[in-house]
């Protein structure tokens, strides 16, 4: 609180009694004292960070705390969960051997109690956090209270509240949960608990979900790692030298540690798909009017998304059937009655009753190999070849799609939208607590003038023209429909911390509002290290940077990291997208099993 003029010590200059110099010195001394008092009273981000971390620690029961700090290593952290001996055998079984769909069924049939399932995931989330720093808000106590209520509901003979009855669901920190902060790692937003829930939070609660924690994000939500000054850095569970991705990086790490069975992230540039790739998860960014997004905290003024590019909320999961469970559970609650942005779109599963793909026609899948901005590394290009070949051998029509003339225009246009507000609201928040930018952002983010009305109109006009041109890509030259296309998630494998720098393969589909998802295919092997990029000149600065992650680079760091593909469908055709992702996942999994069996047979003969 700054001193007012009424609080200032009065100094009167009386001619003949004091010199001008003495008067000026007194004024200077007074102003120095006032400035020092104001600085002392002004809260600092370091103090807030310390208080938030202390609050976190107190919300983890002492019996769930690891006895010693986790080892500093670059190997898989997942085994440390079992080695802690904190989880019971039943809790290990619940958290490791079920997906969300199986858990929901086990709860409905009373094979499992909601309270046991909830306690298992609360404990595992606590351990995952201690190993990877993936959590922000912790509300285990509230979750267990709700679990007991949901058990009593079923024990009384009542039907489940919804498809997620008793299923623990974790949330990215942007979602508001009444009574808890949504600070998104910014000191100025801490200790200001939400007074109401985000729309999707209410929808999930009506569907019967158990909400028990929120997860870490990068400062400003505009980074591709997950570090902020309040909570610190989230690390990748499978290799602590690699990034867990962002901005839903805490969600990705928690799921990878199986501290969550079903998570919800948000995506405006790749923030669901990038962490899904980095943590070998299934994730979907829907078109923005499919899933409720209202009531999020993103550090911006309300309504800014209406003049920019809207973000989407979507699932991150361990199986494709869990992805579909999420969409079905949300649609069952008629979210269009609670969020004005959501369209009336019931969930019609293509595999059962949906009309999106004629039953007499086999799938037609396109292959988009490059965005025309960055050239994929050899293992990424080879992965697309492998997937395309496998699909063609599985009664799926595969067609090449060269859409680089259009796709290469998307990133620069989206960047213009991202800078529409000039970053001024975020900088105001940071400066109010003397908070510096995270290291990765320091050379990438600065204040700029906000765009005026004419500039915004021009951006939207360009976007509309580009979206209209893209309508033609969903037909082959013969006029046959293309159901979806595959492309890279990124032009490189999962990179080291703070080196993920290219988002055009994901952000383009936010600009176009195409639903897009990630499917894990396999792990990076030592044989993937071979192969070189063309020695010709780079396409541009993004391509030049991308080369630094392959040329004259220790590629061994990529070994055993996940390799994934991205699948993209037409606008608002999420049922088709999920169906295609499920089919491709089954085909690729079957092929992997066949290859593994053949390899074991050869090794046995040798």
TrEMBL record:
Oxidoreductase among keywords: no
Catalytic activity: a monocarboxylic acid amide + H2O = a monocarboxylate + NH4(+)
GO molecular function terms listed in the Swiss-Prot or TrEMBL record: amidase activity
Keyword Hydrolase (UniProt): yes
Amidase domain sequence ranges: 116-577
Its EC number(s): 3.5.1.4
Keywords: Hydrolase
Catalytic site positions: 172 (charge relay system), 247 (charge relay system), 271 (acyl-ester intermediate)
Domain of life of the native organism: Eukaryota
EC category name: hydrolase
Pfam families referenced in this protein's UniProt entry, alphabetically: Amidase
Record-listed substrate binding positions: 221, 247, 268-271
InterPro entries the record matches: Amidase_CS (IPR020556), Amidase_dom (IPR023631), AS_sf (IPR036928)
Family named by the database record: Belongs to the amidase family.
Annotated protein name in UniProt: amidase
């Amino acid at each position: 609180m700054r001193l007012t003029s009424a609080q200032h010590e009065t100094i009167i200059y009386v001619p003949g009694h004091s010199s001008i110099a003495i008067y000026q010195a007194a004024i200077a001394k007074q102003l120095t004292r006032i400035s020092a008092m104001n600085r002392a009273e002004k809260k600092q981000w370091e103090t807030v960070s310390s208080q938030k971390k202390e609050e976190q620690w107190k919300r983890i029961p002492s019996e769930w705390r690891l006895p010693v700090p986790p080892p500093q290593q670059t190997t898989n952290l997942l085994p440390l969960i079992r080695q802690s001996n904190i989880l019971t055998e039943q809790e290990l079984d619940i958290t490791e051997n079920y997906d969300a769909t199986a858990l929901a069924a086990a709860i409905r049939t009373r094979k499992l109690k909601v309270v046991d399932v909830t306690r298992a995931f609360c404990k595992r989330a606590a351990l995952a956090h201690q190993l990877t720093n993936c959590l922000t808000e912790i509300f285990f106590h509230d979750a267990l209270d709700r679990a007991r209520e949901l058990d009593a509901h079923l024990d009384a003979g009542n039907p489940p509240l919804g498809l997620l009855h008793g299923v623990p669901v974790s949330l990215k920190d942007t979602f508001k949960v009444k009574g808890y902060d949504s600070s998104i790692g910014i000191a100025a937003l801490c200790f200001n608990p939400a007074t109401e829930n985000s729309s999707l939070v209410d929808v999930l609660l009506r569907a019967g979900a158990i909400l028990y924690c929120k997860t870490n994000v990068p400062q400003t939500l505009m980074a591709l790692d997950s570090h902020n000054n309040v909570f610190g850095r989230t690390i990748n569970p499978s290799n602590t030298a690699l990034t867990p991705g962002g901005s839903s990086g805490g969600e990705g790490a928690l799921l990878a540690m199986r501290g969550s069975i079903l998570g919800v992230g948000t995506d405006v540039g790749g923030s669901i798909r990038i962490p899904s790739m980095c943590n070998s998860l299934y994730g979907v960014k829907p078109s923005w009017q499919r899933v409720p997004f209202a009531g999020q905290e993103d550090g911006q003024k309300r309504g800014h998304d209406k003049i920019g590019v809207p973000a989407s909320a979507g699932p991150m999961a361990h199986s494709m059937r869990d992805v579909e469970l999420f969409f079905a559970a949300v649609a069952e609650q008629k979210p269009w009655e609670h969020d004005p942005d959501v369209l009336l779109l019931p969930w019609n599963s293509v595999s059962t009753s949906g009309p999106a793909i004629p039953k007499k026609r086999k799938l037609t899948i396109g292959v988009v190999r490059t965005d025309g901005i960055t050239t994929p590394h050899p293992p990424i290009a080879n992965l697309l070849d492998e997937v395309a070949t496998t699909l063609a051998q599985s009664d799926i029509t595969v067609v090449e799609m060269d859409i680089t003339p259009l796709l290469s225009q998307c990133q620069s246009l989206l960047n213009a939208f991202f800078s529409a507000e000039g970053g001024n609201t975020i900088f105001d928040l940071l400066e109010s607590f003397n908070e510096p930018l995270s290291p990765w952002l320091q050379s990438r983010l600065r204040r700029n003038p906000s765009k005026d009305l004419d500039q915004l109109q021009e951006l939207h006009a360009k976007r509309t023209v580009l979206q209209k041109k893209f309508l033609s890509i969903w037909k082959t030259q013969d006029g046959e429909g293309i159901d979806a296309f595959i492309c890279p998630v990124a032009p490189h494998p999962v990179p080291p911390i703070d080196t993920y720098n290219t988002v055009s393969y994901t952000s383009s589909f936010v600009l176009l509002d195409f639903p897009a998802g990630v499917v894990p295919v396999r792990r990076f092997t030592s044989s993937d290290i071979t192969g070189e990029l063309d020695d010709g000149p780079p396409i541009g600065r993004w391509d030049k940077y991308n080369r630094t992650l392959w040329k004259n680079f220790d590629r061994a760091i990529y070994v055993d990291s996940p390799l994934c593909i991205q699948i993209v469908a037409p606008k608002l055709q999420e049922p088709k997208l999920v169906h295609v992702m499920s089919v491709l996942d089954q085909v690729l999994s079957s092929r992997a099993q066949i290859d593994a069996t053949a390899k074991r047979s050869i090794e046995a003969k040798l």
